[in-house]
Amino acid sequence: MERRRTDGKRHTDAGVYQILIVIFNIQCPMFNKKQGFSLVEILIGMGLLALVAVTVNGLLFSALRGSRKAEAIAVVKTEGSYALNAMLGMIKYAQSITACPGDGNSVSLVAQDGQALSFKWETATVPNSMASSSSTATTNLTSSRVTVSRPISCPRVFDCAGGTRTVKICFAVESVNATDVTERAGSSGLVFTSQATLRAP
Fold it and tell me: Which of 85, 103, 99, 97 is nearest to 155 (CA)?
């Protein structure tokens, strides 16, 4: 089929279609996309993917370390508070304090029931612990999950310098399962300190 223009020139339908295709290819490049990705596009995509992976990995490790540190602090607080409160309660209601050696590692007393009792910072065991000894048994006040030490700020664990009626207690507790410093309860553990005065006249 042919069309005749007023100027006498002829254009076939195929020619008109070719012109339209050329126009659309120039004005609408979105209809003329290339297939696949170029090397530059692939490298950029891989770089972005690696950046996202590194960021997510760092966030996960940070959250994991924070969780382990919180767990270590919770264990240390529980163990240290139990040991301190047990000793304070027994000392307050004791009849008398019978011995408080100069090294400050132990204190001996007569309990409310008249039984001889002593508290000692055990350094011969691994890990170091806080122990209670009587004539019948020796009991660890801290478990094997933590180790007990004497902090630099305290010259003695048990200090009776104020007389034979008052005992100052100071010790540090740290988790033994911490693999690095970020999982520790502190630089040298959590410090527990208090003092107890005999209530008996």
Answer: 103
Report, in angstroms and rounded to the nearest whole number, the Rg of the chain calculated over CA atoms: 40
Q: Provide the pLDDT for residue 125.
A: 83
With a CB cutoff of 8 Å and minimum separation 6, the contacts of 152 are 188
Using DSSP bridges, classify how beta strands 116-122 and 96-99 pair: parallel, antiparallel or unpaired. Answer: unpaired
Instruction: For residue 9, give every residue at least 6 positions away whose Cβ sits within 8 Å of its Cβ, in sequence order, or none.
Output: none
**pTM for the structure as a whole:** 0.66
Q: Label residue 149 by pLDDT band (50, 70, 90).
A: very high
Rounded to whole angstroms, the Cα distance separating 11 from 113 reads 122
pLDDT tens digits along 18-28: 665 555 555 55
Exposed e or buried b for every residue in 115-151, given b needs 16+ CB within 10 A? eebbbbbbeeeebbbbbbbeeeeeeebbeeebbbbbb
> 177-180: which pairs have CB atoms within 8 A and are 24 or more residues apart?
177/72, 177/145, 178/68, 178/72
Token pair belonging to 171: 């010790």
Q: How confident is the model at residue 68 (pLDDT cuts 50, 70, 90)?
A: confident
Q: What is d(CA 188, CA 166) in angstroms, rounded to the nearest whole number?
A: 27
Average pLDDT on 77-99 reads 92
